[in-house]
What does this fold into?
Amino acid sequence: MAVKYGRCRVAGGDICYNTGMEQKDFSETLGAVREKVAAACARAGRSPDDVEIVAVTKTHGSEVVDEAWRAGLRIVGENKVQEAAWKKPASASGPEWHLIGHLQSNKVRHALELFDFIHSVDSAKLADRINFIADEIGASPRILLEVNVSGEKSKSGMRPEDVAPTVRHIIDECPRVTVEGLMTMAPFSEDPEDARPFFRRLRELRDSVEKELGVGLPRLSMGMSGDYEVAVEEGATWIRLGTVLFGDRPKVRRQAAPEGDDGSAPCGDSDTYAGFGGLDSYSGAGPTAKVLD
It folds into this structure.
């Protein structure tokens, strides 16, 4: 089997990467994942129709989005606004685009222009900002509240005790915004069972907030490549899968930015050449990826 390589071009600068991954038939890989989802649903007395896969294409090229779409996946998840800014126009039209990474308040406008759903609203203040911008541009954003169930300082998300007040605040003060559920990340562990208490707590928190406020919060975004079966057993409706579908993320190495006529980097931003995570230009076409034999 061949190894997948690629070359990216950003405003005249090349970024090369090698995924180091052997290519497999994607439909076969997706079928195996769906079988595991169905088995987890059977163990929990759920229907597989209640669980959707969010295909996380972070640092992969637009051809991966196209492949996922052709295989029947209908939701694409991206961690960064700036990556979606170049990737979405280069990809097949049709998928819903979900922002699953941290959202900074200064990128809200771009996020609302690019994404159909935001999983990572972590404060009432951010919800207010989203509502303000949505009112300006006539958008009706759908969101999840990100909850730091584990209490890890390294993770984003609001405290569980802040969820009910924030939902109430959004209902009362953010008429443009619809909150549809909760999202969390479990602490990393080699054993998927270690994630179960955190997924269970998110579901129980959702249930208690629904009862307290008399609202519906049908969506639970939880579970990633290493623990999605446990998440499904505990009630996940969206599972965020990248590596298990597409293999290891491309390893990006930085190349020197080409100099402009005055000796400076084009766009005045050397971070543009730092790799996918550094892309922050909304005017260019962004990277393109090509698979070489």
Observations:
- Residues 25-249 form a domain with the TIM Barrel fold (CATH 3.20.20.10).
